[in-house]
Amino acid sequence: MSAKYPELGTATNKARLSRNVYDFVKPQELENGEVGHVPVIIVGGGPVGLATAVDLAGHGVKSIVLERFNTVSDGSRAICWAKRTLDILDRLKVGQRMVDKGVVWDIGKIFLGSDKEPLYTFDLLPDKEQKMPAFINLQQFYPEEYLIDVIGDCENTHIRWESEVVAIDNGKDLVTVTIKTPAGEYKMTCDYAVAADGHRSPVRGMLGLDFAGKVFEDNFLIADVRMDYDGPAERHFWFDPPFDNGQTALLHRQPDNIWRIDFQLGWNIDRKEEMCPEKVGKKVKAFLGEDVDYEYEWVSIYTFSCLKMDKFIHNRVIFAGDAAHLVSPFGARGANGGIHDQDNLGWKLAYVIQGKASRSLLDTYDDERIYGADENIRNSTRSTDFITPKTPVSKAFRDGVVELAKTVEFARAFVNSGRLSMPCTLDDSPLNTQDEDLFSAKQRPGSPCMDAPIQKEGKSAWLLDEFGWHFKGLYYAGEGENPDIEHALKDCPVPVEVITVHAEGEQGIIDSQKLIANHYDMSPGAFYLIRPDQHVAGRWRLFDAEKVKAAIAKAIAQQ
Predict the structure, then answer these.
(1) Sheet arrangement for strand 212-215
(2) What is the pLDDT of residues 27-48, one digit of tens each?
(3) Is 558:493 a contact under the CB 8 Å cutoff?
(4) pTM check: above 0.70
(5) CA distance 39 to 28
C-alpha cells in the first residue's frame, strides 16, 4: 500500500491546482491615479461572490469581483450541491455542467455498528420528473472554475485577482474601498458592496460587526482519498462505526475517484497527534481494508459553529454566504445557503440600482435571508446535537432512538444524521400576496417553484428553463384559449413576461405529463406570479389584471 500525505490543510494534487492560477492585471486606477467607480463591488471570489457577479450581469448591472488570491479554492471544501442550488446555478449557466461532472445521488443510507444492512434508506427526490437531481457531489473548485468561465464571457463584470480589500468606508451615498495589489494600493467607489469574503470576513472585521452564536465541542477528521473503488453513489452514514472508536462516520463519493471519509474524534484531543500520518492511516485502513491502494488528496481536522450576524445589510454594505452566517457541515447548508442568499439578493439589488424599486426592497433581503439562516441554523444545531450528544441524558436518548429505529418505523424520523439542505419557503415574506382562493399548500406564496417536464414547440423541455431574470406570469389556458395576458399587464410597475401553458396541443408550451397542473394545483384560468428568483409571489384561481398589478407592486416593496 502506498499513500502520499499532505500537510495540514493542503491538497496533494498540485498539477490540478497549477491549472487554476490567474494572472494579476494592473488596473487602470493604478495607471491613471484616479478613483474608479462601479455600481457594485463584490469582495470575495468564492462561489457566492462569483454567482452574484453573474446574476447581476444577467440583470445588466456592472460589477467587479475582488479576490485576494490568484487561484480557486484548494481541497474539496464544499462538495454537496442540492437541487434548489442547482436550479439557481442552471439559470447562471453552470448547473448542467456541474451535473455532468459531478456524482449524482438521491439515496442515503444510515448504518448502525457492524450491521451490513442499513438501519434505513431514504430517497431525497421521490418525484424524478425534474431536470436537476436531488444532490450532486462536486468539489467546490469546479463550480468556481465554471463561474469564472461564464464571467469571462460577460460584458458587465470581471474579476481582479490578487486584489485585497484593506480598508472600507461605508458612507451615506457611496462605499469607498482601498485595494492592495502587487503593484500598489488604489481606491474605488461603488453604490453597494457585497461582502462574500467567507466566515472570517475581513470586511465584517473592518466595520466592527459581530458574528455571534454557538461553537460545538467536537472535532472531526476529513480524509479525502483517491482510489479505484466502484462503490455506490450514495450517502453512507454510520452510528458507532465498527472500523473506528468514534461515535459517527460518513462516506461520500466525489468525481476523479475521490472519496471523502469523515471521522468524529471527540472534543479533548491532541490535534497534532490526530493529524500524524500513522494515526490517520490506521483509521483509513480500518475503514477501507488493508489491501486497498489509495493516496491522500486532502486531510484536515475541523470544529464547527453555528454563527450569524444580527443584520445582513449595513447601510451600503451587504453580507452574504459564510460572511453573514455559518453552520455545521452536517446537512450541506453552507455553500447551498450562500447561493440562496445570492439568488435572493441579485434581482433586488439590480432593481434598486436601476430605479425599478425603492431601497426598501433591499430590506426584504434581511427579512427573508435572516429567516432562511435561522432555519438552517436551527436544523444544523439539531443535527449536530444528535450526532454529538454532550450529556449522558442526551446520549442515552440518541442511542435509544437509533436502537428503536431498527424495528420501529416511526422512530426513524427522529434519527438525525444531518437533515439535508432543503429550499426555504418564505411564508411570512412581506412581498407575498396571500391566497384568496383555496389551493393546495405545495406551491403557496413564498415557495420556490418546482420543475416539471413540458413540450415546447414539439420538443421536450423543462418549466424552470422558461424562467429567467424577470417577473414571470404562469397562466394555465383552457381548451382553444390564447388570451393576451401580457397586454393586460402592460402598465405594471415592472415588466412581466407571461408563460401560457396548454394542457394539450402541438404549439406553444404543453403540460405534457400534467405535472404543472398537479404540482401547482392549476386548472384553466389559474395564474401564478413568479419573482425573478423563482419564488411564488401570488396566485389566483382566475386571472384578474388589477389584483396581479397590486401583487407586483407589493412584490417590489411598493406597498
Answers:
(1) 212-215, 305-308, 325-326
(2) 999 999 999 999 999 999 999 9
(3) yes
(4) yes
(5) 17
